[in-house]
Amino acid sequence: MDVLKRIPVREQDAKERATNFKEVCLGYNKEEAMEEASRCINCKNAQCVKGCPVAIQIPQFIEQVKNGNIEEAYRIISESSALPAVCGRVCPQESQCEGKCIRGFKGDPISIGKLERFVADWARENGIKPTPAAQKNGKKVAVIGSGPAGLTCAGDLAKLGYDVTIFEALHEAGGVLVYGIPEFRLPKTGVVAKEIENVKSLGVHIETNVVVGKSVTIDQLMDEEGFQAVFIGSGAGLPKFMGIPGENANGVFSANEYLTRSNLMKAFDPDSRTPIMHGKKVAVVGGGNVAMDAARTALRLGAEVHIVYRRSEEELPARVEEVHHAKEEGIIFDLLTNPTEILSDDKGWVTGMKCIRMELGEPDESGRRRPVEVPGSEFVMELDTVIMSLGTSPNPLISSTTKGLDTNKWKCIIADENNGKTTKEGVYAGGDAVTGAATVILAMGAGKAAAKGIDEYLSTK
Amino acid sequence: MYKIVKKQELTTNIYLMEVEADRVAKTCEPGQFVIVRMDSESERIPLTICDYNREKGTVTIVFQTVGAGTKLMAQLSEGEYFHDFVGPLGCPSELVEQPLDEVKAKKILFVAGGVGAAPVYPQVKWLHEHGVAADVIVGSKTKDLLILEKEMEAVAGNLYVTTDDGSYGRSGMVTQTIKDLVAEGKKYDLCIAIGPMIMMKFVCLLTKELEIPTVVSLNPIMVDGTGMCGACRVTVGGKVKFACVDGPEFDGHEVNFDEAMRRQQIYKTAEGRAMLALEEGDTHHGGCGNCQ
Ligand SMILES: Cc1cc2nc3c(=O)[nH]c(=O)nc-3n(C[C@H](O)[C@H](O)[C@H](O)COP(=O)(O)OP(=O)(O)OC[C@H]3O[C@@H](n4cnc5c(N)ncnc54)[C@H](O)[C@@H]3O)c2cc1C
Ligand SMILES: Cc1cc2nc3c(=O)[nH]c(=O)nc-3n(C[C@H](O)[C@H](O)[C@H](O)COP(=O)(O)OP(=O)(O)OC[C@H]3O[C@@H](n4cnc5c(N)ncnc54)[C@H](O)[C@@H]3O)c2cc1C
Ligand code: SF4
Ligand code: SF4
Ligand code: FES
Ligand SMILES: [Mg+2]
């Protein structure tokens, strides 16, 4: 075995998977996991841990995997993370834990994510569950939103003995994990539903179909329904559009609509009654994880798919693994390209998109080189579908109906990073609702911090 | 689960259901809507709140069967349950938000087309309960399709019924009745028109000419109903709005109706297939290539 090389992970063949919605990555088996674990040199001052936003004790859990004690490895991971089967699959490891791994200097970093996923899958398949609190303390906490932030906060509080109810606007719990990230990256019944069951088994109640700010307000939850504290984990679900001419043509969708139809409403299943646009030639505008997911979904529904992104490959914000998978599957990348207008026929259906070529100029505030238009380089792409994936911002439904809850100029709720405290007493917040669109693990970390903050607050009451 | 405590077939293909939904009943106001699902596989179907009973914790909806979703909904019986029933969504009607004396000073005309009588009803009733008598025009294709006439009569100032084919009440489209009333010397400060998009478009063209400010309630395609997907975007006054959170009521003279009507057709083919699948059951598999 070459210690500089990763144990390869089994994947569905690119040609085959481009036509189905089954999971792309098949994960390690126990032998493979133990072998990969044996590459870890168990660093004293482990850098990988510093790269993990929730500081999982990585060398310790990997050590247990190396020795074949998977249950113990799971226990170690569970001390820091409530959703390891999810994070092992979707964390941008290359810029977090694995990006800091010492092995990465000379060879491949340890496949920390794949090991974490193996441990979590093994625990689930072997029926290992987190332990509920021995004693309830009789105090009620409301959690708004059932994404990673809400689930984590609720789970942690339940373990401490609180009586927790999650209020979810949609008909199913999970947030982006169910409506956004596709089945082929994160299986819904197999993985997400099981993680949610775990949270419920800790005694957490989930009430779906409650839009806080509409069905009930935070003040009503606290004054009339007896909740002593509230955690807001409502995410950043408001889609942006470009504001270019023709954007309301038939055949232009937000990535949120397209992915929600496919994932939450199961349009990917031919037996489903949910309609979805089966485009022949699709452009997805944007370069993040959401864009990759929309593109790979469209591909699986039978389209030729182009990613249209105004910067270059280096600046693509998506996880490296997703870009790699997308290319393998046959997604075409039109980089340094920016749409200027959507064209449609006399019935209003999309026929194409006018674009202009870009080149990279001086760095902007974000430190990335600013794309500038190349004069006279306009051209038209013929298309029947355009999916806008330009990012999202927090929904003002809650902030606009809660007095005393302050937001910043991006409509993000202002909250203390260390304990989730907002400007309103007893109200805490975390995840995308506070940071703007970010990552699963950061949302989870924020949910954890807020659970601690809420516990400290209610312990003194 | 949300229990159906009452089901009534108002007329061919139009049903009324009273549903237990405590949270919605407690906080809803006229002008708002709900989204329902019949079972765990169902589409999300937006429907206007037609009536509510805060004490009983029930909400009444009225719907017309147009496609697979609403057909399946009509098969639910009294005593059965909706799987999901979420709301109230959207903004309440401006009337209930404005100071009452300002509302009282206005002469208001409601124009309802077809199943649009259902969403008009709670507003007229609310005004009636607050001492305001509004005139109401209810139009339907033919006598048999007319709904809520008695209920409306009880709360409206004057009720004018018109049928396209002249089988009942006045004869002709609602726009004809508006013209007639104005010709008779009636003056209105505000018109609220709810019905099929095409009806609202023509009412607005007329009231613009007559200089009567007009509010319409738009029913574009929706998914979540909370501002998350943008499926419901409409252009009002040249600006893009999300009907589920910015509406559903808008200034009718500013709405781009042609675009809105066009956008309602986005899923026509898929909807047609779903309907075929429902009607033909197992004999329809899709993908045979015979029904493109
Ligand atoms: C398509 C897609 C792909 C992604 N891929 C990755 C990836 O590969 N790796 C990664 O780390 N991150 C990824 N992300 C980002 C990640 O999913 C989010 O950062 C994370 O889910 C945020 O968690 P959250 O709990 O803050 O919010 P969310 O997951 O957004 O959950 C918020 C929940 O609150 C509910 N809600 C909102 N308003 C209300 C209200 N008023 N009342 C009641 N409920 C409400 C929503 O319905 C939702 O269920 C992706 C995001 C998307 C959209
Ligand atoms: C805010 C709002 C309030 C409404 N109130 C009422 C009401 O009180 N009574 C009533 O009978 N109808 C109402 N509608 C319309 C109702 O939602 C549609 O008739 C229903 O969704 C059709 O579904 P289907 O599967 O039976 O028909 P389909 O065959 O799937 O569709 C028929 C037509 O209905 C429209 N439609 C389909 N799916 C949706 C959707 N998800 N959202 C919106 N429109 C859709 C489209 O224009 C489509 O072409 C309302 C719509 C909105 C947006
Ligand atoms: S949670 Fe994410 S960042 Fe932390 S160790 Fe696991 S994969 Fe790496
Ligand atoms: S940095 Fe790499 S080698 Fe060192 S402990 Fe972490 S995973 Fe193991
Ligand atoms: S229905 Fe999704 S944003 Fe309005
Ligand atoms: Mg339908």
From TrEMBL, chain A:
Which terms are listed as keywords in the entry? Oxidoreductase
- Looking at the record, the residues that make up the 4Fe-4S ferredoxin-type domain are 30-61
Question: Would you tell me the protein name for this molecule?
Answer: NADPH-dependent glutamate synthase
Q: Name one Pfam family in it.
A: Fer4_20
Q: Which InterPro entries match?
A: 4Fe4S_Fe-S-bd (IPR017896), DPD_II (IPR028261), FAD/NAD-bd_sf (IPR036188), FAD/NAD-binding_dom (IPR023753), Helical_ferredxn (IPR009051), SudA-like (IPR006004)
Q: Which domain of life is it from?
A: Bacteria
Taxonomic source organism: Waltera acetigignens
Lineage of source species: Bacteria, Bacillati, Bacillota, Clostridia, Lachnospirales
EC number(s) from the headed UniProt entry: 1.4.1.13
Q: Which molecular function terms from Gene Ontology are attached?
A: glutamate synthase (NADPH) activity; iron-sulfur cluster binding
Xref: PANTHER family: GLUTAMATE SYNTHASE [NADPH] SMALL CHAIN, GLUTAMATE SYNTHASE [NADPH] SMALL CHAIN-RELATED
TrEMBL record, chain B:
Q: Which GO terms describe its molecular function?
A: 2 iron, 2 sulfur cluster binding; flavin adenine dinucleotide binding; metal ion binding; oxidoreductase activity
Quote the record's cofactor note.
Binds 1 [2Fe-2S] cluster per subunit.
Q: What processes in GO biological process is this protein linked to?
A: pyrimidine nucleotide biosynthetic process
Domain FAD-binding FR-type residues, every copy: 1-95
- What does the entry list as the binding residues for [2Fe-2S] cluster? 229, 232, 244
Keywords per UniProt: 2Fe-2S, FAD, Flavoprotein, Iron, Iron-sulfur, Metal-binding
Names of the cofactor(s):
[2Fe-2S] cluster; FAD
Where along this sequence does the record place binding of FAD?
A: 62-64, 69-70
TM regions (residue ranges): none
Q: What is this protein called?
A: Sulfide/dihydroorotate dehydrogenase-like FAD/NAD-binding protein
Species source reads Waltera acetigignens
The record lists the lineage as: Bacteria, Bacillati, Bacillota, Clostridia, Lachnospirales
